Amino acid sequence: xxxxxxxxxxxxxxxxxxxxxxxxxxxxxxxxxxxxxxxxxxxxxxxxxxxxxxxxxxxxxxxxxxxxxxxxxxxxxxxxxxxxxxxxxxxxxxxxxxxxxxxxxxxxxxxxxxxxxxxxxxxxxxxxxxxxxxxxxxxxxxxxxxxxxxxxxxxxxxxxxxxxxxxxxxxxxxxxxxxxxxxxxxxxxxxxxxxxxxxxxxxxxxxxxxxxxxxxxxxxxxxxxxxxxxxxxxxxxxxxxxxxxxxxxxxxxxxxxxxxxxxxxxxxxxxxxx
Length: 274
Prior knowledge:
Number of helices: 10
Strand content: 5-15%
Number of strands: 9
Number of domains: 2
Radius of gyration: 19 Å
CATH architecture of the largest domain: Alpha-Beta Complex
Structural class: alpha/beta
CATH class of the largest domain: Alpha Beta
CATH superfamily of the largest domain: 2-enoyl-CoA Hydratase, Chain A, domain 1
Largest sheet: 6 strands, mixed
Distance between the termini: 26 Å
Helix content: 25-40%
């Protein structure tokens, strides 16, 4: 796959998607939005892909919206329409309307997504990895919501998502102060799952992705990912009812039979996702 603003590579069942404007610290553009969404959809639909890594080319993850685009909006000459538009539904991913929004579509991708945050993550570059299933940060990663310093507000669902990750008081702090903070504090807050030395970030992220790609059922991962994201909108009774239904479906699959067989036969699993 070839794109103008992202790199797309598949190796050993792992798809690595890199935001690719390194000379601009991968500042976000409209084209990058379309490229990333298309790349994610391709990876989600590719049976050869079992895990996705999202990172940034060069020395940063994403410095936020490209300032040229913001200046155009400020001057009234740019496209200020930031309303949500539906994206195609992928098999296995969530079908909730909440996850068809412009920047909230990662839960509709039926593959596990890991954000490898390798440097500055600001504004929209702060929001995007929040929709990943896990976040690993390099030691030098620096975060800021930035919106309040631009006269903007909590964009793209971050007012819903951030408190669920770090709690309401911490979300208010990070959004309203727009202060910069580093990877160790992000780990302490629960914003990221691991902090890794910069020179080992991609290797350790790939090792985790390989665990998903090679040792667990891709069908199980897709269903559990959907269950967990959708449970944010469910009661306990609704989540349990859904789980009971999914369990019955699981009993009928090849992956369930293989899960029992490889354990009893003490061999590596050969899951197919069916």
